[in-house]
Amino acid sequence: MTTRTATGPVRIESRWARPLQVGRYLLLFAFACFFLMPVYVLVVTALKDPVQVSVSRMWELPQSLSLNGFREVWPKLRPGLVNSVLLAVPVSIISSVLGAANGFVLSKWRFPGADIVFPLILFGMFIPYQAILIPMVRTMRDLGMQGGLDGLILVHVIYGLPITTLIFRSYFAGISDELIDAAKVDGAGMLRTLAYVALPIAPPAFAVAMIWQFTSSWNDFLFGVMLTSKENWPVTVALNNIAGGQQVPFHEVMASGLLACLPTLLVYVVLGRFFMRGLMAGALKG
Amino acid sequence: MRQIRQWGPGLLLVAPSLIVLGIFVYGFMGWTANLSFTSARGRNLTGDYVGFDNYRELADERGVTGQRFGIDTQNVLIFTAVFVAGSLIAGLVMALLLDRGVRGESFFRSVFIFPMAISFIAIAIVWRWLLSNGTGTQLTGLNKLFSASGLGFLANDWFKSDSGWAIAAVALPAGWALSGYVMALFLAGIRGVPDDLREAARVDGAREPQVLWHVVRPMLLPVTMSALVILAHISLKTFDLIYAMDLKSLKIDTPALFMWFTTFEGGFYGRGAAIAMLLLAGVAVVIIPYIWYSVRAERRS
After folding, report:
1. Do residues B202 and B211 make contact, with C-beta atoms less than 8 angstroms apart?
2. Model ipTM value
3. Do B275 and A110 touch (CB under 8 A)?
4. Cβ A274 vs Cβ A211: under 8 Å
5. Which of A126, A215, A268 shows the shortest C-beta gap to B283?
6. How far is B113 from chain A (nearest CA, A)?
7. Which chain A residues contact residue B21 at CB under 8 A?
8. Do the Cβ atoms of A209 and A167 come closer than 8 Å?
9. What integer pLDDT is reported at residue B2 of this predicted model?
10. Is the dihedral of CA B296, B299, B300, B301 positive or negative?
11. Which domains does chain B carry?
12. Which pLDDT tens digit goes with each residue over B148-175?
């Protein structure tokens, strides 16, 4: 340990390199099993025939594959899935457009006090929603927007403004001022500069912001349960209702869970790179 | 005048967002704060001004409300401690395992992070089954797995345990959901350490563990602080997960749930608002210094 000859460390490393490498992979594999364990249970149970579903045999593979669970829950879950699409698509588009405008102004067309306003906006993304829930529900009721999806869309857009503004502000901060100044010299106003200089290079930021807003409005439960009536329930509320019911067989619960997760999982698998950037932005790491 | 011409349009463009956020974030927080000093019951939100009575009631452990709030506070602290520590350690270990390049790195990364794309409701539905405390013919979930692999002594009642630590079991699904995120933060942090620095240490005769400890570790402090703050504020706010796991169980009750039940089921709007303000205070203590620090760090660079 203490003798550090020129060859010492090298020799020690080569002796331990292989077992270390094996141990590293074993540990990684163990972690992967831990993360995939719930997925295994979800998939395996959802595909079981009703007669094979039993609590004590949850870990066993199905003897025969059956789509019965999916067939049973589809009529119950379909309205929720439709509602969530009708919610998450407009939310992700509107939020991103507003975020792009805000982010552009706060990074490239700043006004006096912008440095004070930005942290105040940011705080909005960390608050516990309990602190605004009572007045929010009351206000939406007074506006006649409780029960339907329009109110839920509005609320998601508003509380999504901090994160989308942050995403675009960080993104535009990365483009050089010279580009903006050149546009100004050419006599372009703010809207022109935004439309012809900033937005054309912003598709990656749009992807990040849209994915973030799609995922968070799809996965939201609290706003959905507070603001929508039964026929407008988003999928999380519908799923919780199915799973919380008495005597609902496990394969149906798991099939509903699987269906409810598929859209966001699909987005994650296809556009994971942008999803990750959103996560990093959420930690204020640009 | 020419100055305003310069920045005026920008302010005009963000003004609607600023106004709406001003109302929906700060206006509503003020409204809730106001409400917490009243005896408001029912949806019309009117009540007499009662000063700090609602807060006093929450603090008074002789009353039913105070007792429950006491348990809730203890629960959320236990949950936060176990969940934050567990996720930080798991995230760091995973990042270190992946750091020096392994085959299939992107596969492992994807597997560790995908829970971030899933709703807490779905997570709760699977995990409450995995953490079932059934015995005999009802033996299932992790306990079944333990007994089948000769680790039966590990079996326990999880979130249905009678001990005050029942809520620690909820840290397992919560950590499952978020430790991959922590891993990603750490991995970015570790890889942000310039290679030259590590190489220089190696040339000086430092072995890998020493390089990690003396060169990489000090540079991970900011990342650790970020992860800590993000996790802590999430844990204080956790609602959906617990709601969907066992919504009426006092064993895993927290202020976030107590606020919801008090207000929307019990109709005690004033008291609910007081709980919400205490929750907000807890989050603000963690978050405000963090935002302040982040904004200042950005201005310096």
Report:
1. yes
2. 0.92
3. no
4. yes
5. A126
6. 9
7. 121, 124, 158, 161-162
8. yes
9. 65
10. positive
11. 26-59+268-301 (no CATH), 73-264 (1.10.3720.10)
12. 888 888 888 999 888 889 999 999 999 9
> What is this structure's pTM?
0.92
Running DSSP on this structure, what letter comes out for residue B39? -
**CB B188 to CB A35 under 8 A?**
no
Which three-class secondary structure state does DSSP give residue A221? coil
Q: In terms of Cα–Cα distance, which of B14, B10, B6, B22 is closest to A99?
A: B14
What tokens were used for A230? 């039964």
How long, in residues, is chain B? Answer: 301
Set of chain B residues whose Cβ sits within 8 Å of the Cβ of A36: 111
Determine, for residues A34 and B176 on separate chains, whether the beta-carbon distance falls below 8 Å: yes
Of A132, A240, A254, the CB nearest to B244: A240
Taking only the tens place, the pLDDT of each residue in B83-123 is 999 999 999 999 999 988 888 999 999 999 999 999 999 99
Q: Which of B18, B185, B263 sits opposite A117 (nearest CB)?
A: B18
Distance, CA of A161 to CA of A159 (rounded, Å):
5
Taking only the tens place, the pLDDT of each residue in A21-78 is: 899 999 999 999 999 999 999 999 999 988 888 888 889 898 888 898 899 999 999 9
Q: Which domains does chain A have, with CATH numbers?
A: 8-57 (no CATH), 69-282 (1.10.3720.10)
Residue A18 class from Cβ within 10 Å (0-12 exposed, 13-18 middle, 19+ buried)? Answer: exposed
How many C-beta neighbours within 10 Å does residue B16 have? 13
Closest Cα to residue A161, out of A114, A106, A99, A115? A99
Phi/psi for A147 (5° steps) reads 110, -45
Question: Angle A124-A130-A136 (CA atoms, 0-180°, nearest 5)?
Answer: 75
- CA torsion A93-A96-A101-A102 (nearest 10°) is 140
Question: Min CA distance, A140 vs chain B (Å)?
Answer: 11
Looking at residue A11, its pLDDT comes to 46
